Batch of 2 targets.
Target 1
Amino acid sequence: MFFIIIFGQLAINVFNLYGAFMATITTIEPFIKLKVTPKVRIGMIFCVTVAGTIPRPLVEFLFFGSFG
């Protein structure tokens, strides 16, 4: 059961990252002529992952402080 829960969370995160990639590409592509190759796709997903992960440790104390 634990494996199924972990696998489900991983799948949800992958779908969220790919959705963020698609939204970013859809927004950027009309302004700059960007050919989406597998390398560009991996780079964009990495950038979205970093942009979503970096703020977490910076504001974690505020989140837990609200409930304490």
Target 2
Amino acid sequence: MGKINVLYITQAPLGGAAFSLCNMIRSLSDKVNPVVLLPDKGEVYDLFASCGIRCIIHPFRCNIREKSSLNHYLRYVPHLVRDWYYNRICINYVCKNIENSGGG
């Protein structure tokens, strides 16, 4: 059985989470074709690229909101729709990028 494509999504700054993800990906690299989605180039991109891990750069939105007031609930749906729209664009971009590269 061939390797499967696995997309890892992170927006963590360079630190423990990024190093941990990098180590996990390297330990699984004989079983999967790893691809990391990052919102921009920077130190985290450099870390993954230096380990030979393929990266795709495209902005995306996390749907994390503080839920402490009525204002949150009134603004939640428009933010959800906006985030869905931008993330749908990101998903289409990533899928085309992976398909055009032969899947890994």
